[in-house]
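Dear Dr. H.,

I hope your travels went smoothly. While you were away I took the liberty of generating a structure for the chain from your last submission, since the lab meeting agenda had it listed for discussion. I wanted you to have the full record in hand beforehand rather than looking at slides cold. The sequence, exactly as received, is reproduced here:
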Amino acid sequence: MEEHPYSDVLKLHRRRRCCRPGVLTALLALMMTALWAGLLTLLLLWRWDTVQNLKQLEDTAALNISQVSKDLERYKGDQMAGRSQEAQALQTMEEIQAEQRRMKDQDSELSQDLDGLREDLTNLKSQGLNERRAALTSLEKLQEEVSKLWVELRVANARTPKVTPGKMLPPTLLTVPLVPTTMSTTVPATAPATAPTLVSTTAVPLSLSSTPGSMCDTCPEEWVSFQRKCYYFGEGAKRWIQARYACSDLHGRLVSIHSQEEQDFLAKYVNKKGSWIGLRDLNIEGEFVWMDGSTLDYSNWRPGEPNNGGEGEDCVMMLGFGQWNDAFCNTHLEGWMCERLATC
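The corresponding predicted structure, in token form, is as follows:
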């Protein structure tokens, strides 16, 4: 049997057709293997990189935790130090407050002592002024008596008969050495040794105007003279006790009014909003006493006053129109009146 000339080609073609699916399968398997290998490699690389990052994060976290621990310990130390400083500050504050309370107590005691001393000083000044006033009054009375005595002496000398030699003189007044005079003594040459000495004088009898101290009207600057006293009219808001000490600083005291003439004089200078005067009933309610220690012997109360309104009006003010009113001692008045004795 004769073979076909193309039989070999056909066989080869058939053989190729039979081998092509296996090759494709192998190639596909190879590609899949390579793909999986690549994926596995990438996965391994990703895992390694992740592990490295995790290690870095772990190291960083450890460092941060260590730093945070240190910061926390430092913060706790600072907090403890702050608490200690706070406790020390509180203790210091308590000590300061205790010292302030002690100083306030001492200040209160010193203020009381100072007020007592000022009160005693004021009383001494008032007593001295009263004694001086009493002495001046006594001196004036004595001067009047001396003046009367001199008048009687001049009358007696005028009626004395002339002296003749060998004749005894009748009894007459002797020389009074209390008052300075211009004297001429006339004694007869033949008069007995036991005869009293006669005096003829040309002296003028003393009067209050010529007696030392009777016309003392000299006052310091800005003080006003009236009836042998000096008056100062202060201005500026003050309470009664402040006005009292202001007068004391000026070597005076709040005014004491004992006559209508003095009241009329002071009413000319009273502040329109009222002025403090030296009358008060601080010790016994209703028993008003002047700064000179005298009781109320003259008054010019406003109708209905004093009424102790509010149960605490213990100091007296002169209203702008001159009448008096009892008021609270802590009230700030714009005016206050001081007095002191005039000098010669």
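Two observations you may find useful: The mean pLDDT is 78. The longest strand covers residues 229-238.

With kind regards,
E. W.
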